[in-house]
């Protein structure tokens, strides 16, 4: 079931059906972008970054899902049944979904060890900042980790779990892969678009500080490039999983960072229910 290193029968092309939508890109800036995850002290803006929308085609990748791989495009897709009944039940997610995802990722990637370290629920109708951990869809083009923060977050999370020989573990190849899934009705509103990692130039990605109350993380904002190729899987339902590679320690030509963003789908019904989804963040360790 590996979704790595597959060979394309034919190249991904513009023959696929698509929608056109506005994607919000970081505007190039001289200073380092800073985004606060909470309301900052008086006089400090929530972010010093500005964003500009660009209308782009977003291709329906369902018909080519078997020819897309994590190591080439930086994302992948598969059907996968889950036994979770209520994704809003924190205990059930950790007790049932985490082990399911760990096993799935081993099968998909060939990884020998998988650690789920975080998850985020998204539902605009239930998001109450400061009161719960449910967020709205993220409508900016970004990647969750950088070449630096992939390592720093791994050190932090593995140490918190009492794992020994962290330095030795991080000398072997590892990746941070998100597992994204619908958790209620099929997604009609604010679906997720993923950018082919091969179409992102090194100069397109900009490291920025993500400020929490107790630490500072680092993520990539992404600036506009007309060569970016965007894809989505419309009408995703709860028995399908989308994988997004947000970091790879290997620097050998394999995909390392796949930009992604929610977008306003112009074909969504006006009365479409708010998107309900969950994303897991995981470390995948490959054979030494």
Automatic annotation (TrEMBL):
InterPro entries: AsaB-like (IPR044053). It comes from the Bacteria. GO terms for molecular function: oxidoreductase activity. This is Methyltransferase.
């Amino acid at each position: 079931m590996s979704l790595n290193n597959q060979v394309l029968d034919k190249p991904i092309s513009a023959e696929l059906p698509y929608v056109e939508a506005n994607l919000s890109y970081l505007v190039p800036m001289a200073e380092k972008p800073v985004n606060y995850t909470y309301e900052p002290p008086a006089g400090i803006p929530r972010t010093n970054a500005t964003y500009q929308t660009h209308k782009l085609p977003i291709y329906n990748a369902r018909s080519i899902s078997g020819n897309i791989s994590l190591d080439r495009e930086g994302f992948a897709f598969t059907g996968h049944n889950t036994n979770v009944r209520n994704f809003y039940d924190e205990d059930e997610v950790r007790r049932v979904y985490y082990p399911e995802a760990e096993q799935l990722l081993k099968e998909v990637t060939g990884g020998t060890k998988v650690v789920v370290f975080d998850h985020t629920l998204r539902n605009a109708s239930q998001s109450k900042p400061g009161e719960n951990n449910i967020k709205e869809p993220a409508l900016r083009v970004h990647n969750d980790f950088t070449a630096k923060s992939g390592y720093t977050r791994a050190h932090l999370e593995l140490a918190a779990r009492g794992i020994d020989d962290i330095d030795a573990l991080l000398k072997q190849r590892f990746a941070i892969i998100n597992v994204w899934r619908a958790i209620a009705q099929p997604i009609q509103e604010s679906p997720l678009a993923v950018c082919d990692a091969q179409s992102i130039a090194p100069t397109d990605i900009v490291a920025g500080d993500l400020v929490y109350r107790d630490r500072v993380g680092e993520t990539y904002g992404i600036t506009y490039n007309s060569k970016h190729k965007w894809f989505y899987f419309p009408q995703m339902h709860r028995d399908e999983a989308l994988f997004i590679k947000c970091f790879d320690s290997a620097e050998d030509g394999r995909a390392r960072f796949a930009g992604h963003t929610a977008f306003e789908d112009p074909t969504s019904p006006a009365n479409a229910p708010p998107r309900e989804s969950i994303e897991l963040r995981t470390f995948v360790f490959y054979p030494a």
